[in-house]
Amino acid sequence: MNYNSSFYNNPIVSKDCYNRCNKGGKTYSINREYIHTDIEQGCVRIVYKSIPTDEEGYPLIPNNEKFKEALKYHVLWQLYEPLSYQTDINQNVLEQVQQQYMFYIASSSNSLLMPDVNEMESIKNAIVRLIPSNTQYEQGFKNLNKKQSNNTNEFY
Questions:
Q1: 14 and 41 Cβ atoms separated by less than 8 Å
Q2: What three-state secondary structure class fits 156?
């Protein structure tokens, strides 16, 4: 089944399971809390992204250097802000910490929003086309994500 592209490129999945799940024509879309498929009957394997947690259920810190820097400057900001009201710390130091926090939080947000491999494949298949399709709207954009196959032998 395709996320408007390749559904499941995971080396943990057996080749037999991968082949059964990736036979052509099966697609899905997510609309709010509903998953819409084009299969009438059968079994659907759901793979989802979640926030990793520890044994106690607390979220883990992503392994992203920019996120770690943003977290560091957030803690410093929370530490220095009350001190700045008491004039125990220079106002310029607090402004520098705030500026660094804003930079790293924006940078980490962008890096965490990058599409994964399947989403990138879908974007590539939608953009890279030799022959544009003018019927995608009528088809509900169902095959826009599929790799284009151009058979040039039929012209010879």
A1: no
A2: coil
